[in-house]
Structure formats: C-alpha cells, structure tokens
Amino acid sequence: LSRVRRMVGREGKLTERLETGACEGSWASAIDASNALVDDLVRPVSEVGRVLSAVAEGDLSPRMELRTQAPDGTGHPLRGEFLKVGRTVNNLVDQLSTFTDEVTRVASEVGTEGKLGGQARVRGMSGSWKDLTESVNTMAYRLTAQVRDIALVTTAVAKGDLSRKVTVHVAGEMLELKNTVNTMVDQLSSFSSEVTRVAREVGVEGELGGQAQVPGVAGVWKDLTDSVNLMAGNLTAQVRGIAQVTTAVASGDLSQKVTVSARGEVAQLADTINQMTETLRIFADEVTRVANEVGAEGQLGGQANVPGAAGTWKDLTDSVNTVFRNLTTQVRDIAAVTTAVANGDLSQKVTVDVAGEMLELKNTVNGMVDQLSAFGAEVTRVAREIGVEGELGGQAQVPGAAGTWKDLTDSVNTAFRNLTGQVRNIAQVTTAVANGDLSQKVTVDVSGEMLQLKNTVNTMVDQLSAFADQVTRMARDVGTEGRLGGQAVVPGVSGTWKELT
C-alpha cells in the first residue's frame, strides 16, 4: 500500500497497482477492492489529462467521458465530484471551442475576406472569457472604424475628391498612418489645384505661359511640380510657334514655316505642318487654276496636277479631279438634253450617273422632259379632236404636273372648255333657228371675236324674228282680214334681208 501510494500519489505513475501475491480469501478481496478504488480514482484524472493535453495542443474536439468503463466491459456513470469535474472540463472545452470558432471567424472575415464589422458571439460567457470576447470585439470594432475611415478617404482620393480627411480617433502606428494620409491629401490637393489651374489656363482659357506654384513641397512632389512647369513652358513655346504658322495658313499665307526647337513627336508635328504647308501651297495653286478654268473661263475638262503628292493629299487631289471630271460629264450631258429640248426634241434624257443634288437636278430635268412630252402629246391630242375631228369637250391629262406646268395645263383645258361651251351655245341657237325657233339667244359669256360672233348671231335672230313677224302680219292682213296695201317694216335690215323685205 505504501509503495502504490507513493508511486501513484507522489510520482504520478497511475498504472501502479497492489500485487496480490500469495494472498487468498479476504486479503485477496481487499487487494482487489483497493486496486478497483485506485482505478476509479485514476480513470477521471486520466480523462481530464487526456482532454487538457488535447486542448494544450490546440485540439478542442475531445470531451471527457462521463461514464466509467471497466476492463471487463462493465461501467457506470460518474457521480458526485467526478461528474462535476467532468461537466466543468467539458463546459470549459465547449466555451473554448465556441470562443475559438468565433475569433477565427471574425479574424478570417477581417484578415482574409476583408469583411469589416464582424463581432464574436459567444453565449453564456462570463468572467475572463466574457472580458476576452469583449476585448476581441472592441479591437475588431476599432480596427473596422479606423480602416473604414482611412479607406473612405483614400477611396475619395482615388475618385478625385480631395476634400476628405481621416478623422477617426487613433494612436500609435495608426496615428502615424492617419497623419501620413492627411498630409498626402493636403499635398495632393495643393498640387492638383495648381496643375488644374495651369491646365485650365492652357487648355480651356488658352492662356499659355502659366506655372504651377506649390509652396513647401519637397522630394517627389517638388520634382513633379518642376516637371509640370517644364512641360508647360516647353508646350507654350512649341504651341505658339506652331500656332503662328497654322494661323498664317488659316489666313491664306502659305509662305511661313515652323522653326521652333522641338524633339520627338513635336518635332515630327513641326515637320508634318511644314510639309502640309508646302503641299497645301501646291494644291491651292492647282485647284485655283482648274477652278478658274472651269468657273471663270468656262473651260470644262481641266485637271489639277500636284507632283509628289501622296496619301491623303494624293487622295484629295484625285477627289478634286474626280469632282471636276464628274462635273464636266454631268454638265455636258444636262446641256445636251436642254439643248435638245430648246430645239423641240423631247426624246432625249439625262443618263449620266450622279448622286445628291446633281441627282435631283437630273431627275428634275428628266421630269421636265417627261412633263413637256406628256403636255405636248395631250395638247396635240385635244387640238386634233377639236380642230380636225370636231369632237368638243376634250381635256388634256398630264399626271403629276405641278406648278407652272399644272397652271399651263389648266389654262389649256380652260381654253378648250370655254371654246366647247361657246361653240355648243352658238350651235344650239343656230339649230333652233334652222328648226324655226326664233326665241333662243346666245347667252354664253364671251369676249373678243367670239363676242362679235355672239352679237352677230343674236342680231340675226332678232332680224329673222322681226322679218317673220312682219311677213306674218301682212299675210294675215291680206289673206285673212282682206286689207290690201299693207307693207312689211323691218328696221335696220340690209343686204339679202333688205332685198327680201
């Protein structure tokens, strides 16, 4: 017993047991009972040690068994202090596991996924565990506030808003970061204002020669300011030199050249402008010559000749020549048609390939020819019907006629319609006279020679009526009433009517 007590209780060798030896009977039972007691005492301690060792190694998955298990397979649940210790250890591991999971989750969200604002939620915590959880949450909350405020400012800077500053309360290295960011914003704001001012003066207001003034800058900011000012100075000199030449070109002076000292693309631009000026001069001379031939002297068929022209200038020269060539062809074709129309030939049409306003002119001329042809055909038809075939009432039909052509068609139709009405009215009266009806008169509204004819017919009817009345009266006096010696009196008659009277 002393040995086992020393080995188990002092030296911690929990596997030591009493040796039964030659004991029998009650002694053997007492030894077995003592060993069973040691087993029951050692087993919870071993379980606690196993769980705590796993916890110490970072493994929070093991739990203490709350039921003993004998070597022979039998067992019973823990009771009393052993049960209390088991539950306490398991509760400790549960809280540690929950705390670890929550801290790991918050740390993963903040540090790995970049999700700020996370908080650890550990229910049932108290004492140091509660304080530790609150400390972790406070740290996460403050870190969130600090990072978000700095991110807000840097995001604003990235978007061009230099009015924001970091205002969150910080200390230590975060305070240094805050001051650094705010200083950066101040310098960027000052630099941006000056660069914007110079850029506005140069690019918007056209005021060359401006320089950026950024007091107190040093290092890269000073180098950057100096570079901007150098660029603005060089740009001013170069632009003014190029502007002088382009202004001269715009004013029609093609004698000037760019002489400003430049390199790189600006030098290429200067050479390009000088070449452009020379090509423009030759091109202008040629276009002026051809335009003078075509527009002033009326000599169609001229072509511009610009030796050495290439690229756009060659294309432009070719385009001008194509314009002159097409214009020559178009004008000559239209002139041929209009000349034919002037000579009474309505069989020709403008057939040259054109577009745009020239196409409208082509269609107009062809439409004019079509309308003239239709008008001529219709007038000829109606004139033949009336003048040759004697068919009155015909009207000229010219579909699509408008403007003067419609007015002319309407005038011809009015003339034919009036002539038809007049002839038919006179024919009606003369037919009535032929039928012995002397009561009708020509009533149609006429003028000129037709008015004379109207008056002549009406006078004839009046005289015939008066003659008939007198002859009838005499016949009645002599033949019916027996009055001899009567005379017919027909005032105003002459010629055959007078002789007949």
Number of strands: 0
Q: What's the SSE pattern? A: HHHHHHHHHHHH
- The assembly state of the depicted protein chains is single chain
Mean pLDDT: 82
Task: Provide the structure class.
Answer: mainly alpha
**Tally of separate helices:** 12
**Level of helix content?**
55-70%
Q: How many whole angstroms does the radius of gyration measure?
A: 63 Å
Gap from first CA to last CA: 195 Å
What is the 3D shape?
A: elongated
Low-pLDDT regions: none
Beta-strand level of the residues, as a percent range?
Answer: under 5%
Task: Give a quick set of tags describing it.
12 helices; mainly alpha; 501 residues; elongated
What features would you describe in this structure?
- This protein has 501 residues and is an all-alpha fold.
- It has a domain of 56 residues.
- Helix content is 67%, strand content 0%.
- It is built from 12 helices and no strands.
- The longest helix is centred in the first third of the chain and has 33 residues.
- It is elongated, with a radius of gyration of 63 Å.
- The mean pLDDT is 82.
Short description:
The protein is mainly alpha-helical. It has helices spanning 2-10, 26-56, 80-112, 127-158, 172-204, 220-250, 264-296, 311-342, 356-387, 403-434, 449-480, 495-500.
